Amino acid sequence: MSIKFGTDGWRAVISDTFTFNNLRLVAQAIADYVCVEFPHNRNVVVGFDTRFLSDRYAAEVARVMAANDIHTWLARADTPTPAVSYAIKHRGAAAGVMITASHNAPRYNGVKLKAHYGGSASPEQHKRVERILQENMQAQKEPRLMELDTAIKQERIIKFDPAWAYYEHLSKLVDLDVISSGELRVVADGMYGSGRGVIGEMLARGRTRVMNIRHEMNPGFGGIHPEPIERHLGLLMSTIQAGHWHVGLATDGDADRIGAVDANGRFVDPHRIFALVLRYLLSKRGWRGYVVRTVSTTRMIDRIAAEYGLSTIETPVGFNHIADLMLAHDVVMGGEESGGMSIKGHIPEGDGVLLGLLLLEVMADARAPLHELVADLLQTYGPAQYKRTDLKLSRPVAKAEMVRLLVEQAPYEIAGVCVEDVQTTDGVKYYLNDGSWLLIRPSGTEPVLRVYAEAPNDARVKALLAFGEAVAGKA
Known about the structure:
The chain is an alpha/beta fold and about 475 residues long. The chain has 3 domains: about 10-165, Alpha-D-Glucose-1,6-Bisphosphate, subunit A, domain 3 (Alpha-D-Glucose-1,6-Bisphosphate, Chain A, domain 3), CATH 3.40.120.10; about 175-380, Alpha-D-Glucose-1,6-Bisphosphate, subunit A, domain 3 (Alpha-D-Glucose-1,6-Bisphosphate, Chain A, domain 3); about 385-475, 2-Layer Sandwich (TATA-Binding Protein), CATH 3.30.310.50. It has 16 helices and 21 strands. The chain has helices spanning about 20-35, 55-65, 80-90, 125-140, 150-155, 165-175, 175-180, 200, 235-240, 270-285, 300-305, 320-330, 350-365, 370-380, 400-410, 460-475, and strands spanning about 10-15, 45-50, 70-75, 95-100, 110-115, 155-160, 185-190, 210-215, 245-250, 260, 265-270, 290-295, 310-315, 330-335, 340-345, 385-390, 415, 415-425, 430, 435-440, 450-455. The strands form 4 sheets. The protein has a 6-stranded mixed sheet, with helices on both faces. A 6-stranded antiparallel sheet has the order 16-21-20-19-18-17. A 5-stranded mixed sheet has the order 8-7-9-10-11, sandwiched between helices. Helix 1 packs across helix 2 (about 55-65), helix 3 (about 80-90) crosses helix 6 (about 165-175) and helix 10 (about 270-285) packs parallel to helix 11 (about 300-305). The longest helix is centred in the N-terminal third of the chain and has 18 residues, at about 20-35. The radius of gyration is 22 Å and the shape is globular.
């Protein structure tokens, strides 16, 4: 039996590897880690999403914590991951556990390990917990367990609602008065995840009209992956087209990612959301500092930052890399192509609710529909069209070897445009002199090769992807 932690914890198929027994083992390893590393701060926060048995799994984690003399704040109901992460920082806890598999298919569940600063635990912290887990298993150390009712009576476990402190915090980062003045009509698509109804609750007192869809409890997520990408947002698009709505906002399974749909029913991807919000923060709020984006994110971000004399830092894929920089430097905004983004003054954690609210503020302030804002963005900092394809491999590839081969065989030009630079931040990225780029990046967790491209038009994107797929197939 193998329990392996990825960049944001452990995920596995329910009733296969993700079982109560295995979860208790993981929880005991986390408890041991907290007791050793934070002997004077034995406090943790435990939250959960809407997946099958998530509430039961969270209670089981809390039982293990209580049995190890760790004071545990247990969420009363399903809650967005960023709300749980904020609660960790707000309450001064040593760590946190979020039961979720985020945007993954319904058959999965998982454990996100959170650090005291309100973001994902570092790779070193994950490795430490994994090492303790292996040592406990080798020693056949049984997890400690306490009855839930007993732990609650002894106040070792306290049930609470993380939402209220989180909402108050968000109200300091977003101008709710500006949003209200826009009198926007919004469709909020919770995708049956733990962000369901949250945007509406934040805006309930103003003049914004919010209609919720897919906000019922449905652990099967209607048979889709709860990921706010175009192919999963058909219901949101059709709802927008059927009514007089200004915008649709969709959050993923645990609400740390965002996607949008404009008034014409067209998908607005995270690249454009990132760019619109960044421009607003720099131009309207006058914020300054570093701008951080992952290697697979639009270069419009670089052009916006450069206009204000700011530096852009490119990181490998994964919000944990952005979080590290947010903790160490004065970062205005950081984000990635998958929809995880955060801003200065917030926790170093992707937050789909925050970004959805900020997008509404951008629209309300501009007194313009989203499609016009996107058109202006592309005219000013583009054009920029983007697409990604995933190639399934018969076997995992050695990332280092593939990178070496792709760098050694780097072409002088791709589809008739000269290559001006080759970077290996994460995979191999070819920068072309017309502002376009091509990224070939093996997945670190599954036999999949990801090929990304951004170019001035769809034809160029298609040509770059075709080249990338052909080269990747030979490597």
